[in-house]
Design brief:
alpha/beta; TIM Barrel; Lyase, Ornithine Decarboxylase, Chain A, domain 1; 2 domains; 4-stranded parallel beta sheet; 6 helices; 10 strands; 21% strand
């Protein structure tokens, strides 16, 4: 990390100390943002500890404490608002008073902050957001509303059909647990035409993909098979035909890290 990162998000003094040592060995200084937990309960020091930790980081060789930040709408799903931003800015004020200088970066969150920001409600003092989903998928992370001026189809998942058949919508026999330990439930819609595709949970989050073919409905997935109801597409989906999908955040994350998904860049 000391060799590759220009800026790191950090919340442990022990980690910062080791990072500083590695940076000095490389003749570098790593810029650090101290993360403060304002309620989402992912990473970050608790606000009442932030001043002491910031002072410790500011005195470490190899580390340049450039700012403070927080993360929201992640583990806990906490929505960015005036209250948690005020908590962060209160910590910033206290840290600046202790250090006797301004911090250059106040990172208020991620793509979940975009609506708050675009509506003009984001408080002055926050000068940085860490935007990923908003750029890559063109959606903000709380309501999934489109971000103006950003493409929403930059990524396409393409999967090959391996079977097409008309089958019942409710399995035959007693229902127990599925391959992943859950107990599935089904709605009887009679006989429906289904396509089985060569992709599954090892590759993607099946409930975060969206067929581009009008009328297609994703039913679920096993480890390496994806089931799609194609009855209402009014098209034939024989083996070998490919189906395209838009992706949500979870599906994009898994697909990009899966060694079984071929990645190609076009354009």
């Amino acid at each position: 990390m000391a060799a590759l990162a220009d800026v790191v998000l950090i919340s442990e003094t022990s980690s910062a100390r080791l990072l500083g040592q590695a940076a000095r060995q490389l003749g570098r200084v790593v810029r650090a943002i101290l993360m403060v937990d304002v309620g989402d309960l992912r990473e970050g020091v608790w606000p009442d500890r932030a001043v002491g930790v910031a002072q410790a980081l500011a005195g470490m060789a190899g580390i340049d404490l450039v700012g403070l930040g927080t993360n929201l709408a992640c583990f806990g799903g906490v929505i960015p608002d005036a209250e948690n931003m005020a908590t962060l800015l209160g910590v910033v004020d206290a840290v600046e008073e202790r250090l006797g200088r301004k911090v250059r970066v106040v990172s208020g969150g991620n793509s979940a902050n975009l609506n708050f920001f675009l509506e003009g409600s984001h408080p002055e003092g926050v000068n940085n957001l860490r935007i990923g989903e908003g750029i890559l998928l063109g959606r903000e992370a709380v309501t999934h509303r489109p971000v103006p001026g950003v493409y929403r189809d930059a990524f396409t998942l393409i999967a090959e059909v391996v079977e097409e058949a008309e089958k019942p919508t409710v399995p035959l026999g007693r229902i127990g647990r599925d391959a992943f330990g859950g107990v599935p439930s089904f709605v009887d819609r009679g006989m429906r035409r289904r396509a089985v595709l060569a992709a599954g949970r090892q590759d993607l989050a099946w409930d975060a993909i969206f067929p581009r073919a009008p009328g297609a409905i994703v039913l679920g997935a096993s480890s390496d098979h994806l089931l799609v109801d194609v009855t209402d597409t009014q098209e034939s989906w024989p083996p070998g035909r490919e189906m395209a999908f838009d992706l949500g955040y979870a599906a994009l994350l898994q697909a990009m890290t899966s060694p079984y998904v071929d990645k190609r860049h076009a354009g």
